[in-house]
Amino acid sequence: MFWKFDLHTTSHIDTLLEKEDVTLTEVMDEDDVLQECKAQNHKLVDFLLRAQCMEDLVTFITQEPNADVEEKVKYKYPNISCELLTSDVSQINDRLGEDEMLLMKLYGFLKNEPPLNPLLASFFSKVLSILIGRKPEQIVNFLRKRDDFVDLMIKHIGTSAIMDLLLRMLTCIEPQQLRHDVLNWLNEEKVIQRLVDMVQPSQDEDRHSNASQSLCEIIRLSRDQMFQVQGCSEPDPLLATLEKQETVEQLLSNIFEKDKNESAIVSVIQILLTLFETRRPAFEGHMECPPGMSHPSFSVNHSILEAVRPRLKDFHQLLLEPPKKNVLKTTWGVLDPPVGNTRLNVVRLVASLLQCNTHSIIAELINLNTLGVILDMYFKYIWNNFLHIQVEICTAMILAMPPAPAEPQPDGEQGGAAESALIRHLFQACQLTQRIVDAWRSNEKEQSEGGRRRGYMGHLTRIANSIVHNSDKGPNGPQIQGLISELPTEDRENWEAFISGQLADTNKRNTVDLAFSDYQMQQMTSNFIEQFGFNDEEFADQDDVVDIPFDRISDINFSLNTNESANIALFEARCKEKIQQFEDAGSDEEDIWNEKDVTFAPEAQRRPSSGSTDSEESTDSEEEDSKRDPFEPCHPGSDDRMEVDTGWSPVWTASFDDVPMETGSGAAAASSPMPGTETGWADFSSFSPKCLFFSPKDPLRCNSPVAMETSVETIDPLGNQPNCGRTVAADESSCLEQRSITETVINGSMKETVSLTVDAKTETAVFKRSAFQAHTHTHNHYIF
Predict the structure, then answer these.
(1) What is the pLDDT of residue 526?
(2) For residue 710, what is the enclosing H or E element?
(3) CA angle 477–478–484, rounded 5-degree value
(4) Dihedral angle sign, alpha carbons of residues 122, 127, 130, 135
(5) Could you give the CA distance from residue 619 to residue 772 in angstroms, rounded to a whole number?
(6) Facing residues of 335 across strands?
(7) What does the alpha-carbon distance between residue 523 and residue 345 come to, in Å, rounded to a whole number?
(8) Extents of the domains making up the chain
(9) Residues 437, 495 contacting (CB under 8 angstroms)
(10) How far apart are CA 142 and CA 57, in angstroms?
């Protein structure tokens, strides 16, 4: 069997390493070299720790391969070398981190002229990053001794791998004191100022993008670190430098005092947006900082706003005259000029400035009529939803946020604004309600002519709903209602007709709530994208936030709006209706389903007649057969109806016992007595003939598919023929004593008569069935 054999294969590397002249490339050609290295194969690790092997590994990742090498194997050895050096083997980390010659050889990669080989740069950054994490003190001391380290990092900032290495130095150093020393060292080397100088029109786009991203990440990482480490009294030196007014002014002067460059402008705006980011509370429902916490990461530094305010006119001018863009042809038309990334980011900056709710900033925006220009762009570029969402955010914040506090007065008193100047500007100068109604009518007209629905209509609906909501329930409701009432009569009537007509109809159609409706109104910052609209506590350990789910459960309303009494009454009535046929209301008699003793009629009360079910044959007396025509009904002129008194429900019991049965074919058989001393008769002790009254209102039912005749006659159970001319109504007393029902069925040559005779005196019931065919009369007697 296969388990009898040892299928474990020995690595060929062990055999290969036994050779005295084995080379590093021969070992690296083995397919399982990485697996054996991570498994810490002693022979392999000892081989790699040789001085020559370590030097060759570093050379592979820092020097360009020969140009004549085939492309598919050109970076094979550099890749394997990088994986071996970063396999996290402690012996390799120790040798590489403690050997200064190897570190100098590795550091020499930064001295190459830009641009660096991006693949080799990624190998270099990966090896140095793992050394920073495993040997932080040795690597930091080595780098601080290099005077040109920061210069070389800034020089190659256009390479993404070098930017990643710079950020690694801020995040991978675990000892808090050592990290603080690194921050002070980088701040002394003016790394922030050097990165700011990279964001200017004279640099290329890669430098703009990487320098801007580096500064943004430094801001976020520093703020997160300050928030997590509550005991740290010293501020982050890099963040403090970035938030200085002169640093922000230098950023703005780089883009406004030189040629307009879209890449530089967008990069600077990205940095400003990151500076304006305020850390959102971790707990839902907290609009302010948590109790007992006044942390700078929860507010915007006032120096940043002071640096931006004088440049608002320059940003406003960018909305009017953006950097030159080529004409853009789209599927629906030509954009000349298109919105462009510059103007879109300026609108995002305005939205962030409005969120700060600073009086000086708001006053400057009102004086410049920046909101009016943004609304003009909204209605002009009908298909740019990136622009539409930013305009919606601006209007929503203006309508919902309280009035901005006024600037401090000379006497030291704070002057509070009674109402929002932005809302007044939005309704009066920008004519928001009139423009909404006009745009809606224009869209409806275009659609009626066969055109398409405009792309901003969804956002326009949300803006209109925001106005209606804030006028009713918002903090600025009275002011909004007053401004609407101050509109010209025609405009006010048009707005009221719009919100009660088109807007109401649209809201009815839009009844489905989208999954992202809760946070579509939030600013789409990178922090928001990482969290996807959820709070940090949503993903925290449940042990730490065990009360949060129960708090939410307590808000759930489990009440059901149901009419319990009506449902119970309906159920009981239905049940009584279903079982009424089995009840004997007002009767003291026994249950019909209970077992009872079998009762027999006396021998003298037996009658020479018998009955059966519909599927059996029955016979009649010879006297009755001889007096009647078997093919004619007894009373052809009588009314074949039966009246039943539904008010009285008799309970009677029939006892069925096995009795002898005799079948004959003549009158003699019909009249001959049945053998046996006792015969089981039905017990009709509680039966009342009243239920057999016939009425012309209730005809007898017949489900037979053949012709049927029904007659009602009074027959003497002893065989005496009653008066056929007497009706039921004529002699009621006789009917009370005796009643007979007869039905005649004709099917071709067959004629069958079935009769039921009830005698109240003798308390007997007799079923009779006679069949006739070709003048042959057969009688079958069944007595039960």
Answers:
(1) 53
(2) strand 707-713
(3) 90
(4) negative
(5) 11
(6) 328
(7) 12
(8) 12-189, 742-773
(9) yes
(10) 20
- Name the pairing type of β-strands 776-780 and 764-773: antiparallel
- Asked whether 674 and 663 are in contact (CB, 8 A), the reply is no
| 3-state DSSP assignment of residue 194 | helix
Cis previous bond, 675, omega within 30 = no
User: What integer pLDDT is reported at residue 48 of this predicted model?
Assistant: 94
Return the SS3 of 644.
coil
Q: Is 458 helix (H, G, I), strand (E, B) or coil?
A: helix
Q: Residues with Cβ < 8 Å from 523, sequence gap 6 or more?
A: 348, 351, 352, 355, 393
Token pair recorded at residue 250: 């230098």
So what's the pLDDT on residue 597?
54
Contacts of 476 (CB under 8 A, 6+ apart): 399, 400, 402, 403, 419, 420, 423, 470
In 3D, which of 442, 453, 319, 438 has the Cα closest to residue 383?
A: 453
DSSP 388-439: HHHHHHHHHHHHHSPPPPPPBPTTSPBPPPSS-HHHHIIIIIS-HHHHHHHH
CA nearest 201: which of 269, 245, 265, 154?
265
Joined together, the tokens standing for residue 171 give: 């995040």
The 10s digit of each residue's pLDDT in 349-368 is 999 999 988 999 999 999 99
Cβ atoms < 10 Å from Cβ of 515: 7
Ranges of residues in the chain whose predicted pLDDT is under 50: 1-8, 280-297, 409-417, 515-516, 519, 529, 533, 539-550, 552, 580, 582-587, 601-680, 686-735, 774-784
Residue 405 has a pLDDT of 78
Q: Which spans in 622-681 are helix H?
A: 622-627, 667-671
Rounded CA-CA distance 576/10 in Å is: 86
Identify the helix (H) or strand (E) that includes residue 403: none
- The residue with tokens 């190459």 is 112
* pLDDT score, position 382: 92
Q: In this structure, is the dihedral angle defined by the CA atoms of residues 60, 65, 70 and 71, taken in order, positive or negative?
A: positive
| pLDDT of the residue at 279 | 54
- Rg, C-alpha atoms of the chain: 52
- Confidence (pLDDT) at 569: 79
The predicted pLDDT at position 626 comes to 43
Packing angle between helix 340-356 and helix 262-276, nearest 10 degrees? 20
C-alpha–C-alpha distance, residues 84 and 28, integer Å: 9
Query: What type of residue sits at position 527?
Result: N
Question: Contact at 8 Å (CB) between 614 and 703?
Answer: no
Terminal Cα-to-Cα distance of the chain (whole angstroms): 83
